[in-house]
Write a structure and sequence with these properties.
The chain is α/β, with parallel strands linked by helices. Helix content is about 30%, strand content about 25%. The chain has two domains: about 200 residues, P-loop containing nucleotide triphosphate hydrolases (Rossmann fold); about 160 residues, Hypothetical Protein Pfu-838710-001. The strands form two sheets. It has a nine-stranded antiparallel beta sheet. Strands 2-3-1-4-5 form a five-stranded parallel beta sheet, sandwiched between helices. Strand 12 and strand 13 form a beta hairpin.
Length: about 375
């Protein structure tokens, strides 16, 4: 079962995306379930926000969230009983509700219902794909005629698209599909984003892409937002990596825990060479399995990597800044996935990027777990001899 959320501002292509994904996955023998958008169901019943007072609006949002959980759980439960692979497509997810509420009201709902963001954002869904509204980059195609509950003008639609995107920043498998291509290619990019995560070999047939991970060394400096260097909205996570014993030239395995405020998500990753290419397979595991694997960690060759991962969106690009505390305090690496050449990539102007280190083996996480030397004052690493 793969639980997928399609999110984004109005008129982003979510309805077409559901049809497209259903067609492709059903043709591959998958069962596909589509969870309808809760807000559309409720608002389509005659509810008008303009006629509700503040107390009524807050209660409505709380009940909307409860209804969404019940709808999703019905489909998740049914999917878990299937005898074949199953894709569950959620038209929006739990964190969408937070985009339309002041932070204190959202946190009040979470506390009242004994909920926390790590569980409902990171653990509830396997992948989140943000389809950017046509109001941002494809204004000529923005329309309100195909959804009777859609009332936003272009300016409000753009704002809501940004807020919804920010609400999901931090999910480990969050993809952003903008309007830099025509709509048909946008749908193909969406399909490739999903099939790639599922390691389905037909992905390259859906869309050829030269996107790859780019890595940059960042100057060690204060990360506190300031008037001179304002940050976009971001979320910080604590991340711990441990490597498991491996044979020479064999598969490389590691475990990770990632979370906030004491709530963790656990992952087991195996990296191996297949037909000349390196392939990573990630599996979410329970706390019990994680603890069992952690007891087997290779303490002689590798040390635990501890870092803060700061996730944010800048210029329609998803970025993450890794701030190391162990074993390389002060090291900061900025990463993103893009096909844009470095000289055309719009870098975050609130950070001082020293150099691109994409492909440099000394900055691979495996080598960082083995390296203990930092070149004084430069944040450069002594290359490993593997």
């Amino acid at each position: 079962m793969w639980r997928l959320v399609l999110t984004g501002g109005p008129c982003g292509g979510k309805t077409t995306a559901q049809i497209t994904l259903s067609t492709i996955f059903e043709s591959m023998g998958w069962r596909v379930f589509r969870v309808p958008e809760t807000a559309t169901i409720l608002l389509g019943g005659g509810v008008s926000f303009s006629l509700l007072d503040d107390e009524q609006r807050l209660e409505f949002q709380e009940n909307l969230l409860k209804t969404m959980f019940q709808l999703e759980d019905t489909y998740f439960s049914l999917a878990s009983t299937q005898k074949r692979n199953c894709l569950v497509i959620c038209d929006r997810g739990a964190m969408d509700a937070s985009a339309y509420l002041p932070r204190e009201e959202w946190e009040g709902i979470l506390e009242k219902n004994s909920l926390n963001e790590v569980d409902i954002r990171d653990n509830r869904y396997d992948q989140v794909v943000h389809l950017v509204s046509a109001a941002n980059g494809a204004e000529e195609h923005y329309t309100r005629s195909n959804n009777k509950t859609r009332t936003e003008d272009i300016e409000l639609a753009t704002t809501n698209d940004r807020l919804v995107g920010e609400a999901w920043v931090g999910h480990p498998y969050y993809e952003l599909i903008d309007n830099s291509t025509d709509f048909e290619t946008k749908m193909r990019r969406l399909c490739r984003a999903v099939t790639t995560r599922l390691h389905i070999p037909h992905a390259e047939e859906l869309l050829h892409s030269d996107s790859k991970k780019r890595k940059f060394l960042v100057e060690c400096e204060s990360l506190e937002p300031s008037v001179e260097r304002p940050w976009p909205r971001f979320r910080d996570f604590q991340v711990h990596h441990d490597y498991l014993p491996c044979f020479p030239n064999g598969p490389q395995a590691r475990i990770r825990r990632r979370g906030r405020h004491g709530k963790w998500m656990y992952t087991h990753t195996v990296r191996k060479e297949v037909a000349g290419a390196m392939v990573e397979t990630r599996t979410n595991v329970s706390r019990q399995i994680y603890d069992q694997l952690l007891a087997q960690a290779d303490r002689e060759s590798n040390v635990t990597i501890e870092k803060t991962r700061r996730c944010f969106v800048w210029q329609n690009q998803i970025w993450q800044l890794d701030i190391y505390s162990t074993p390389h305090p002060g090291l900061m690496l900025l990463e993103t996935y893009t096909a844009v050449p470095t000289n055309q990539l719009v870098m975050p102007d609130f950070l001082t990027v020293k150099s691109e280190v994409t492909g440099e083996s000394s900055y691979s996480m495996f080598n960082l777990s083995k390296t203990t030397k930092i070149t004084n004052g430069v944040n450069g690493l002594t290359p490993d001899q593997d």
